[in-house]
Amino acid sequence: MKKSFGRLMLCAAMLMASGAVLAQDYGNDHDHGDRRYDHDHGDHHGGGFYDRGHREGWYRAGGRVPDEYRRGDYVVTDWHRNHLRPPPRGYHYVRSDNGDFLLVAVTTGVIASIIASH
Question: What is the CATH number of the domain that holds 106?
Answer without folding.
Answer: 3.10.450.160
